[in-house]
TrEMBL record:
It comes from the Bacteria. This is Ppx/GppA phosphatase family protein. It comes from Hyalangium rubrum. PANTHER family: EXOPOLYPHOSPHATASE, RETROGRADE REGULATION PROTEIN 2. Residues 22-301 form the Ppx/GppA phosphatase N-terminal domain.
Length: 309
């Protein structure tokens, strides 16, 4: 079977997917890896990628590309999202990735990011959905909302400049965050999401990316992380409300020890959890399905699928 790879370079993490394409046109995972490199540290204020963030991210991209080639990948597609979009020195990062890793990184727009995330969720949940399918992709720098149907048609998509890293850097100064800081984040999210159109009746929400999978792993104490136990699970609004309360009252040193939470994600997970909770409130939904797959799977189908998405 032909083998391909995608590398998703986000504001907070870098993800690798190596997969075989079956004769039926579906993809089977061979290797999946994730490393938190925080490419987007400080970008919200400085509009520049930091030397530390770039170096950590370039090292991981190089290692992931080498692994994909050693596994026989015929092609490698690499995408970068919010941090690279916003940074004035994004071109410098792209050139360094080409020189060091031998890959061409494509900076995709928020709209493209939304489309690819929806394509990924639709592959897994589209046939199950009794009605319209909604997707939320919570990243470090941006959050995408996509409304579509079970046939895969997208009716609405929008990318908002809110994410776990961006909100933490913009609003949080205390450890643990103060009540006033939390209230400012909540108000900002309520105001931001007020422009969302109401979801169609019977719509099902699917959440993708690390914030959502981490919250599910914490809620169900999936430690060490196991994608098979996470993918397809459900988080309720009541569970999220409890998680948010716990996260905002717990100092960072203690958050780092919570089961299911990667220590490198502990400083930004509180704001990430608020994004998902406020999204559910804005959409007036009571639960969210959880997808362990995301943009990297949509990119795989788009670039290497038998029929382009």
């Amino acid at each position: 079977m032909p083998r391909f790879a995608t590398i998703d370079v986000g504001t907070n993490s870098v993800l690798l997917l190596v997969a075989d394409r079956t004769p039926e046109g579906r993809f089977q995972s061979v290797v999946e890896r994730a490393e938190i490199t925080r490419l987007g540290r400080g970008v919200d204020q400085s509009r520049r990628l930091s030397p530390e963030g770039m170096e950590a991210t370039l090292s991981v991209i190089t290692a992931f590309a080498q692994e994909a080639r050693s596994l026989g990948a015929e092609g490698i597609a690499v995408s970068a999202t919010s941090a690279a979009r916003d940074a004035q020195n994004g071109a410098e990062f792209l050139q360094a990735a080409k020189e060091r890793a031998g890959v061409t990184v494509e900076i995709i727009s928020g709209e493209q990011e939304a489309q690819l995330s929806f394509a990924s969720a639709h592959m897994d949940f589209g046939s199950e959905a009794a009605g319209p399918l909604l997707v939320i992709d919570i990243g470090g720098g941006s959050t995408e909302f996509i409304y579509g149907n079970s046939a895969g048609r997208v009716d609405f998509r929008h990318s908002y400049d809110v994410g776990s890293v961006r909100l933490t850097e913009r609003f949080i100064r205390n450890d643990p965050p103060s009540t006033e800081e939390r209230e400012r984040v909540e108000k900002f999210l309520r105001d931001t999401f007020a422009s969302l159109p109401p979801p169609p009746p019977t719509a099902e929400l699917v959440g993708v990316a690390g914030t959502v999978t981490t919250l599910y792993a914490m809620q169900h104490r999936v430690d060490p992380y196991d994608s098979e136990r996470v993918h397809g699970g459900t988080l309720t609004r009541a569970q999220l409300e409890q998680l948010v309360e716990q996260l905002f009252r717990t100092p960072l040193a203690e958050r780092c020890k919570l089961p299911g939470l990667q220590p490198k994600r502990a400083d930004v997970i509180s704001c990430g959890a608020l994004v998902l909770l406020e999204a559910l409130r804005a959409l007036r939904l009571e639960q969210c399905r959880v997808s362990d797959r995301g943009l990297r799977w949509g990119l795989l189908a788009h670039r290497f699928g038998a029929s382009r998405t």
